[in-house]
Amino acid sequence: MTYRQIEQGMEAKAVDYLNGQRDLKRFTSGVSTLFNTFDLLLMPTVSFAALAEDPVIGSEEDEMLFTGPFNISGHPAVSVNMGFTADGLPVGMQLAAPHFQDIELLRAAHQLEMMQSARMPSFD
Fold it and tell me: What is the pTM of this model?
Protein backbone atom coordinates (compact mmCIF):
# COMPACT_ATOMS: atom_id res chain seq x y z
CA MET A 1 0.00 0.00 0.00
CA THR A 2 1.35 3.39 -0.94
CA TYR A 3 1.09 6.65 0.96
CA ARG A 4 -1.22 8.00 -1.76
CA GLN A 5 -3.58 5.05 -1.29
CA ILE A 6 -3.66 5.75 2.44
CA GLU A 7 -4.45 9.40 1.74
CA GLN A 8 -7.28 8.40 -0.59
CA GLY A 9 -8.67 6.12 2.10
CA MET A 10 -8.67 8.97 4.58
CA GLU A 11 -10.76 11.04 2.14
CA ALA A 12 -13.47 8.37 1.82
CA LYS A 13 -16.74 9.06 3.57
CA ALA A 14 -18.47 6.49 5.75
CA VAL A 15 -21.49 6.44 3.44
CA ASP A 16 -19.20 5.59 0.50
CA TYR A 17 -17.74 2.71 2.49
CA LEU A 18 -21.20 1.42 3.41
CA ASN A 19 -22.38 1.70 -0.21
CA GLY A 20 -19.28 -0.21 -1.27
CA GLN A 21 -20.04 -2.95 1.24
CA ARG A 22 -23.61 -3.18 -0.09
CA ASP A 23 -22.34 -3.38 -3.69
CA LEU A 24 -19.80 -6.03 -2.70
CA LYS A 25 -22.54 -8.15 -1.14
CA ARG A 26 -24.66 -7.85 -4.30
CA PHE A 27 -21.72 -8.72 -6.53
CA THR A 28 -20.72 -11.72 -4.42
CA SER A 29 -24.32 -12.94 -4.40
CA GLY A 30 -24.45 -12.63 -8.19
CA VAL A 31 -21.29 -14.69 -8.61
CA SER A 32 -22.61 -17.29 -6.15
CA THR A 33 -25.79 -17.59 -8.23
CA LEU A 34 -23.70 -18.88 -11.16
CA PHE A 35 -22.91 -21.96 -9.10
CA ASN A 36 -26.59 -22.86 -8.88
CA THR A 37 -26.19 -23.95 -12.51
CA PHE A 38 -22.47 -24.81 -12.78
CA ASP A 39 -20.22 -26.85 -10.48
CA LEU A 40 -17.11 -24.96 -11.60
CA LEU A 41 -16.31 -22.14 -14.00
CA LEU A 42 -13.48 -22.50 -16.52
CA MET A 43 -12.21 -19.38 -18.24
CA PRO A 44 -8.96 -17.78 -19.37
CA THR A 45 -6.68 -16.53 -16.62
CA VAL A 46 -5.78 -13.54 -18.80
CA SER A 47 -6.84 -12.45 -22.29
CA PHE A 48 -3.36 -12.90 -23.76
CA ALA A 49 -0.36 -15.20 -23.63
CA ALA A 50 2.36 -14.39 -21.11
CA LEU A 51 4.09 -11.07 -21.74
CA ALA A 52 7.76 -10.21 -21.38
CA GLU A 53 6.81 -7.30 -19.08
CA ASP A 54 3.95 -6.77 -16.65
CA PRO A 55 1.12 -4.77 -18.23
CA VAL A 56 -0.16 -1.51 -16.75
CA ILE A 57 -3.11 -2.05 -14.40
CA GLY A 58 -6.26 -0.71 -16.03
CA SER A 59 -4.92 -1.20 -19.55
CA GLU A 60 -6.36 -3.55 -22.18
CA GLU A 61 -3.76 -6.05 -21.02
CA ASP A 62 -4.80 -5.80 -17.37
CA GLU A 63 -3.95 -9.14 -15.79
CA MET A 64 -6.81 -8.84 -13.30
CA LEU A 65 -9.66 -8.66 -15.81
CA PHE A 66 -10.67 -12.30 -15.28
CA THR A 67 -9.09 -13.01 -11.88
CA GLY A 68 -10.16 -9.84 -10.11
CA PRO A 69 -13.85 -10.70 -9.78
CA PHE A 70 -13.02 -13.78 -7.70
CA ASN A 71 -10.51 -11.85 -5.60
CA ILE A 72 -13.32 -9.45 -4.79
CA SER A 73 -16.09 -12.03 -4.24
CA GLY A 74 -13.90 -14.38 -2.22
CA HIS A 75 -14.69 -17.42 -4.37
CA PRO A 76 -11.78 -19.85 -4.59
CA ALA A 77 -9.99 -19.84 -7.94
CA VAL A 78 -6.84 -21.37 -9.35
CA SER A 79 -4.89 -20.91 -12.57
CA VAL A 80 -3.67 -23.96 -14.46
CA ASN A 81 -1.21 -24.09 -17.36
CA MET A 82 -3.15 -25.39 -20.34
CA GLY A 83 -0.39 -25.31 -22.89
CA PHE A 84 2.04 -23.03 -24.67
CA THR A 85 2.04 -20.62 -27.59
CA ALA A 86 4.19 -21.27 -30.65
CA ASP A 87 6.83 -19.10 -28.93
CA GLY A 88 6.78 -21.32 -25.83
CA LEU A 89 4.88 -18.87 -23.61
CA PRO A 90 2.39 -20.39 -21.14
CA VAL A 91 -1.36 -20.13 -21.64
CA GLY A 92 -3.37 -20.33 -18.44
CA MET A 93 -6.95 -21.22 -17.70
CA GLN A 94 -8.66 -20.35 -14.45
CA LEU A 95 -11.06 -22.53 -12.53
CA ALA A 96 -13.40 -20.98 -9.98
CA ALA A 97 -15.66 -22.73 -7.47
CA PRO A 98 -18.40 -21.95 -4.98
CA HIS A 99 -17.39 -20.70 -1.55
CA PHE A 100 -15.88 -23.42 0.67
CA GLN A 101 -15.38 -25.84 -2.24
CA ASP A 102 -11.60 -25.45 -2.27
CA ILE A 103 -10.84 -29.19 -2.18
CA GLU A 104 -13.11 -29.93 -5.17
CA LEU A 105 -11.51 -27.02 -7.02
CA LEU A 106 -7.98 -28.31 -6.36
CA ARG A 107 -8.99 -31.82 -7.44
CA ALA A 108 -10.33 -30.49 -10.74
CA ALA A 109 -7.18 -28.37 -11.24
CA HIS A 110 -5.02 -31.42 -10.58
CA GLN A 111 -6.98 -33.42 -13.17
CA LEU A 112 -6.45 -30.66 -15.75
CA GLU A 113 -2.74 -30.55 -14.96
CA MET A 114 -2.44 -34.32 -15.37
CA MET A 115 -4.17 -34.10 -18.77
CA GLN A 116 -1.67 -31.44 -19.84
CA SER A 117 1.50 -33.05 -18.47
CA ALA A 118 1.92 -35.25 -21.55
CA ARG A 119 1.93 -32.14 -23.77
CA MET A 120 4.46 -30.05 -21.86
CA PRO A 121 7.47 -28.97 -23.95
CA SER A 122 10.96 -29.96 -23.01
CA PHE A 123 13.00 -27.10 -21.54
CA ASP A 124 16.41 -28.68 -22.11
Answer: 0.78
